[in-house]
Amino acid sequence: MSPGQFFTRFGFFFLWLFHWLPLSVQAAAGNALGWLGYRLARRRKRVARRNLELCFPEKSRAEIGRLARRNFQATTRASLEHGLLIWAPAARLDKLIRIEGREHLDACRGLPVILLAPHFVGLDMGGVRLSTEIRVASMYSRSRNPVLDHYLLKSRTRFTEAVLASRHEGIRPLIKAIQSGLPFYYLPDQDQGLRESIFVPFFGIPAATIPALARLARVAGAKVLPAVTRQLPGGRGYVLKFYPAWENFPGGDVEADTRRMNAFIEERVLEMPEQYLWTHRRFKTRPAGEPGLYD
């Protein structure tokens, strides 16, 4: 066993011990460690602050700092609470992760459907909570650490026989799963580089965005149903909210469809700006001739 695998096992042992605590205690510990992480993780802190400066130019330096700190706290709390997803029984998860807008999901039952799940801190909470009731399909990136892979896959498959496709396998298995009626839990809002990306605005800034949502919906004949998970304060848990399926999507213009996706995500970010994935360099890929934004 490599040193990395040993420390990963130790970390998951800590999460196993931690998951027995009440959620209010876990949340308090996550907030405290997030406060500490904000002061120690300098590189991620710089990225988060830069993203917030770009997306919220009207905010003062002090406001940006407070928002970045709250983001670290929300992210750390969600990470520590992952032990619940691996070991807590379904009955406990049902209580901690509430579902709203279930009627929108029920209206698509049995139909090809893509669940648009942007990168908010509660993303995994919503996905695993959904898997306690129905089978879902999703895509994942393999880790070089087999211990980490084991536990992440365990959390996503222990309640139902989910269909999990590696990014290396492409989308063919997912199209088949979607067309069979399995909801596809899709995370499309990260900068994956120039390959297959187009530039569409995100908070007014050209952002390299994979236009696969519209293309996949068209090929699979699927409805797009947004599914956003919000982290609640203290020990109140999370809420997985389903929105109405999008009408007239995809349209006739892939770029317009992708702008629509980014605009929807922007609206949700404005509702809970401290919970988005600000430590990801969302604007690292620039149009030809534009300088980098993180130098």
For this entry, give a set of tags.
seven-stranded mixed β-sheet; 12 helices; alpha/beta; two-stranded antiparallel ribbon; 295 residues; 48% helix
Concise summary:
The protein has 295 residues and is of the alpha/beta class.
Describe it.
- The structure is a single chain.
- This protein has one domain.
- 48% of the residues lie in helices and 15% in strands.
- The chain contains twelve helices and nine strands.
- The chain has helices spanning 3-18, 23-40, 42-55, 61-80, 82-87, 90-96, 102-107, 123-131, 146-157, 172-179, 212-220, 254-271, and strands spanning 97-100, 113-116, 137-140, 163-166, 184-186, 198-202, 205-209, 223-231, 238-242.
- The strands form two sheets. The chain has a seven-stranded mixed beta sheet, sandwiched between helices. A two-stranded antiparallel sheet has the order 6-7.
- A hairpin with a 2-residue loop joins β6 (198-202) and β7 (205-209).
- The longest helix is centred in the N-terminal third of the chain and has 20 residues, at 61-80.
- The radius of gyration is 19 Å and the shape is globular.
- The chain starts with a helix and ends in a 24-residue tail after the last helix.
- The model has no long low-confidence stretch (mean pLDDT 93).
